[in-house]
Automatic annotation (TrEMBL), chain A:
This is Circularly permuted type 2 ATP-grasp protein. InterPro entries: ATP-dep_Glu-Cys_Ligase-2 (IPR051680), CP_ATPgrasp_2 (IPR025841), UCP005522 (IPR016450). It comes from the Bacteria. Residues 468-488 are annotated as: Disordered. Pfam families: CP_ATPgrasp_2.
TrEMBL record, chain B:
It comes from Nitrogeniibacter mangrovi. InterPro entries: ATP-dep_Glu-Cys_Ligase-2 (IPR051680), DUF403 (IPR007296). This is Alpha-E domain-containing protein. Residues 1-308 form the DUF403 domain. It comes from the Bacteria.
Amino acid sequence: MPRLDWNQYDPNGFYDELIAAPGQPHPAARALCDYLAGLDSSEIGDLKAAAEVAIQVMGISFTVYSDGDMIDRAWPFDIIPRIIPLTEWQRVEAGLKQRVQALNMFIDDLYNEQRIVKDGVFPAALLADSVNFRPQCVGIQPPGRVWAHICGSDLVRDKDGTIYVLEDNLRIPSGVSYMLENRNVTKRVLPELFQTGGILPVDDYPDQLYDMLVSMSPRPLDEPNIVIMTPGIYNSAYYEHAYLAQQMGVELVEGSDMIVGSDNCVYMRTIDGLVRVDVIYRRVDDMFIDPKAFNPDSVLGVPGLMGAWRAGNVALCNAPGAGVADDKVVYTYVPKMIKYYLDAEPIIPNVPSYLCMHDDERDYVLANLDKLVVKPANESGGYGMLVGPHATAQKRAEFAELIQADPRNYMAQPTLSLSVAPTLTDEGLAPRHLDLRPFILSSAHGSYVTTGGLTRVALVKGSLVVNSSQGGGSKDTWIVDTSAQGGL
Amino acid sequence: MLSRVAENLYWMARYIERTEDTARLIRVTRHLMLDFPGTTTLSWSSLIHITGADAIFDEHYGTRDAAKVLTFLCADRRYGGSIMGALAAARENLRTTRDVMPKEVWEEINSLYLQGSSLLAGTIDLRRLDDFLRTVIRGCQALTGMIDGSLSESPARTFCAVGGYLERVDMTSRILDVRSANLLPRSPDDLKPFEQLQWMSVLKSLSAHQMYRRQVRTRIRGKDAVRFILLDTTFPRAINRCLKRLHGKLATLPRSDAACAAVAELQQLLQRDGTAELADAPDQLHQFLDDLQLGTSRIHDAIRTTWFGGVDSPAPVVDETVEHPGQ
């Protein structure tokens, strides 16, 4: 590993998160870049090795399930953090709060008055076709009329430096444990920078999450019983479920650990007997939480859970049905929602999007498939997408047919030039594309945004795929208050 | 603590203990066979009977020769009491409770499992059998030591201990049964010349020989050996001591009356007159050990119904003391 020379580092024309121009770090990244440049090659190698050891010792892993054997892989991590100045972050934070507030009002409206449909702002046809609309939730008003208590929105930065919201994850967003662990590893590896670097802490998330969950309790107790409901060890996010349970000191339960009593309350089976459960942070999809209400074949859920929730005897976070807003077509309406419910302009823009259900926009999409990314409404994890510029003519023709057969199910966006950040690779320092997933907590008492979020990096040169199961990695994310920085 | 987690830990501890004790059981039998003239009626078949695995063995195997019995007891995953079967089960139980167990315990059981699998690759080589058994016993001791040394006093630890003690009572009684089953000549005259050897083997299989020696200080006699294994209050694998510990552990749990009563019942059986005399009466010893094993299964039932909860749980009863820890 050669010494890091910022004059030799070239972001290839992309926006770089640390470097404004060769040899010139952004002001908030100057302390970090100077520090790294002062290390010799063996010291950098040592830091990299120390991070690997820390990850192994701390047991930070993610699960890949294949061939009937479970493999826990070490979490792929790059030691060079990604930096966002506090002043910029404050605007992003305000934008995320605004966005999630509008989304919650939208979900609540859909399950109750449906004003936005009646006023012609949101098309009735779209609602009628929504696969994540749950008729079982109609007429319900959860406390504070909040549905999406935990939201993970993906942010990307384009060539000109503008930050866009790429999508909102309102069902069961994951990754926050890795955000916390990335910081723990970085503190071990670069402790000097934390003394004077003006880096804002992230570790109050479990407390914030716990407080939010407590505030949802249907019983005014000092210590309500909170649980995390997991599908079990074979779920790819099981590490996170166990991690959050440990951090909050709550039970990690599976569906079979709970029953709904004749009093329509939820109980968990413990060695002390049946103990009432007040709040369930469920990491199980809607369709599997209650075989009586949804998929009757599912063994992951608790029969009668929906009834207990409807009766107000237990809080479910996120509320069932919140996924109705987790739809890439619904996404395109978020700026209109913000205008409609909050009478405000969106602080963070959406990526410009084309809806195939509108004739003129569909014509544009079909004529420009080689320039666009086409996404189906309800897939996640990058499945079922067409990345036009990288696709074969045959693949584009297939998508043209899919779009014409079911226009409601598709939307398209221009391919963005995602920003990059310097990353340690086998060839030395190199720019790699990245995104950012902050987490937003909402309750009747207000909202909270993580300090930064989980930065995911495409470790393969030129790649835009940041998923860890496909060779993606991650970085610690620093929100830096330059006014609080001292000399190093 | 969740019932499921408690149950998994209990079974994990039972399986670790069963792994170790099955290895001991095979070891003592093998040593007895090596020590005895070829004319005796020692038979591997009895081991299947002692472990209570007749039905499943007969389902998959024909004759009960050494190779088949050893393959079955060491390597057959279809039988949950085989060494690799029990080890695999302990490992699976630990998977779902990794959040409450020290990480090193998981790593140890994983590596023991992998090591065992590679030692048993292919057929069982009799020359490597002792290596394998020693590795297994040592690995299990390491595991119980780690749990003892790194898991805080908590219900998790209690359920590990409970499972371990109960399985040990059951398996120690089965190892003792080696002496009473058809392994040995029936006529007292045939028995005499081998008495010391046989009992020494049983004691050695329980790692009890040295401790016995320090305590009894006479040549090894059946009566004394039985007294030591059943009634000693200080030796860790002695049944009396296991039951006493088991009772103490159970008493720390909520609603423990039924389980404690089931243990007390067994303690009384043990203290009856003439227990030690059973050494000279193989049939009666066998009957006694059978009773002991039935008793352990009653204790298990009491534990299961009290703490693990079944599909048919009783109507919800909220324990207010749990909900208001401060009151």
